[in-house]
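Hey everyone, long-time lurker, first post.

I ran two proteins through the pipeline my lab uses and got sequence/structure pairs for each. Pasting them in order. The first:
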Amino acid sequence: MTRTLSDPFGRTIEYVRLSVTDKCDLRCFYCLPKGFNDFEEPEHWLSFDEIERVMRAFGELGVHRVRITGGEPLVRKDMPLLAARLARLPGIDDLLLSTNAVQLAKHARALKDAGVTRLNVSLDSLRPQRFQEITGGKLEKVLAGLQAAKAAGFHPVKINMVVMKGVRIGFITPISQHFCATCNRVRLSVDGTLYMCLGQEHNFELRPLLRAGISDAELRTAIVKAIALKPERHEFSGKPEKILRFMSKTGG
């Protein structure tokens, strides 16, 4: 069994961003357009057993870092239980979670106890009115979540924000500077689709194979085959019209 997962361009794949739901308890206008309701049917979501099986295969192939994302991962029931199952997998030594922190006050201690090592929190403004305009939510819930994370022992907690024209200024280096030469990640959507690049349409569906009774060895072979589809670089700048997915569908 190989312990290194490489793409056709010699990049080692050691990081999976795992989406556990495409639903969210906020409605950020840059992520979910007004009126959007095209969410994945729950019967198409990978079960916890299926997720654990796929991530075990990735761990056996050399992946050691997993980031749990969504949508908002904490809207999926029993997330700390899934986190605990993933944290116990051989080879997975860095388990992260991205969250908007709205429900973090309820779950921070359980997530820490489950083995989540780090948190990334999306927070687009510290002005309550502006936060509500961007997300439709209440800032005080996010701040309470951050306090709970600190009390649970998460340190440091990374804060992310999305730069928006007319709201602030900033730099998005993946657009202005290619990071592709050192890209070490793939994304697994809630329905079991592997996306090899955020800026390309290359993908590989694992759910049909899982539900057809694929063996563990065949699953590892399928993942290796999927990684062979990873393109050399994104085309955000040259062909932005090619990427038609909403972030809630792909995963963070």
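...and the second, right after it:
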Amino acid sequence: MRKACKNIDAEIFVVDNASTDGSKAYLEGRFSEVKYFWNEANLGFAKANNLALKETKGDCVLFLNPDTIVAEDCFEKCLHFFSTHADCGAIGVHMIDGAGNFLKESKRSFPTPMASFYKMTGLCKIFPESKQFAKYYAGHLDEYKTASVEVLSGAFMMLSRKG
């Protein structure tokens, strides 16, 4: 995270939802530039993020899962995209798993009843590039091309406060 923020004026917040794994003792002494929220109860993903959101001051806010590894130029590329696309309100990224496999959650459509039905019945696996049957994961969109999507993953979601 430090390397990805090296050329950016950034604030870093960590919200802990009552973990019991020794995170507090481990993190606090190592990362003094981070502002921590140590919740005594698990408030849930959205409520916990909203605690930190109230404290942020930047033009952009990134919600990032703690197990996510980002490339050193990732944030700069996202900020550049915002600066060259005034109509963009949020950015997700091409996510991969630990083995380097593309995560379909990187590009999603709204989970309508039909899109969910096609996913649950396996039709999206049978027709992985169909605009209709693979709608849940927006299978018709190229994995490597920038595209407008209906749903962004909470694992990496950068929002612009402008516009």
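Reply from user beta_strand_b:
Welcome! Quick read of the second one: Residues 1-107+147-163 form one domain. The beta strands are 13-17, 35-39, 60-64, 90-91, 156-160.
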